[in-house]
Amino acid sequence: MKKQVIQNKWSDDEREKLQQLVKQYTQNNRTQWTEVSKFMDRSPNQCKTQYSIVISRNAPKNCNVQWTIDQKLQLIQNVAIYGKKWELIRKVDILSQFTAEQLRQKYLFFQNNKLLRTKMLEKIITTDQLNPKEFNERQVELYTYMYKKFCAEKTPLEPLENQILQKAFQLNEENINIREALQKIFEKLPELYQQQLINLNAK
Predict the structure, then answer these.
(1) Which of 48, 102, 125, 194 is 20 to 30 A off residue 13, Cα-Cα?
(2) Orientation angle between helical segments 137-146 and 69-82, nearest 10 degrees
(3) What is the pLDDT of residues 33-65, one digit of tens each?
């Protein structure tokens, strides 16, 4: 017989119990929401949603600030390097004011928000952040992120993303260090970039 799921408001006792269960059934930053829900008379999705609300309410007041473009890029960079290890990621100074849950929610929002992702990529290309003098590891990591999210999942890069990679190659092909960084990306990309890789190796 299927368990009846409660639909009314959460009580303080339920929220406290929920937090205890989440601690018990979370390993390697992954929570077994199905197991948690068995003790709550709530669905896994209800538990997950309510826990996010609880975490948000308990967050320090100074965390309720707007994200800067640097913070967003830093978040993307760190996820590309470390994976979704939020406690590790928040040790970076620029992200230390956020809780692990806030980082997770922001990254999830970024993944699901195509418009926001496009605006961030446009910001890079319109502010000349790809100028050789300003090119840094953060941009390299963003390109790596783009590869991992779109190429590794067999989803074609969007025109704007193609444009950014093309511009990065053109602006920095004379800088040996940057060329090496870009090569690590281009050699993994689809046939669209094979000729660029040949040209890169010929230098």
Answers:
(1) 102
(2) 60
(3) 999 999 988 888 888 888 877 765 665 544 455
Q: Quickly list DSSP for 93-109.
A: GGGTTS-HHHHHHHHHH
Say if residues 189 and 150 touch (Cβ distance below 8 Å): no
155 and 111 fall within a common domain: yes
In a domain, 1, yes or no: no
pTM: 0.38
| 174 vs 191: CA distance, rounded Å | 23
Are residue 82 and residue 153 in the same domain, yes or no? Answer: yes
Nearest to 35 by CA among 46, 49, 23, 21: 21
Question: Domain span at residue 32?
Answer: 12-58
Q: What is the distance in angstroms between the CA of the first residue and the CA of the last residue of the chain? A: 69
Do both 37 and 90 map to the same domain? no
3-state SS assignment for residue 58: helix
| Tally of domains within the chain | 2
Q: Per the structure block, which two tokens stand in for 180?
A: 């090496």
Long-range contacts of 196-203 (CB under 8 A, 24+ apart): 196/169, 199/173, 200/169, 200/173, 203/173, 203/179
Query: Can you give the length of the chain in residues?
Result: 203
Which residue spans within the chain are E strands per DSSP?
A: 26-27, 30-31
Query: Sign (positive/negative) of CA torsion 78, 81, 85, 90?
Result: negative
- What would the pLDDT profile of 67-123 be if each residue is shown by its tens digit? 887 787 778 767 766 778 888 888 877 888 888 888 888 877 776 665 665 565 555
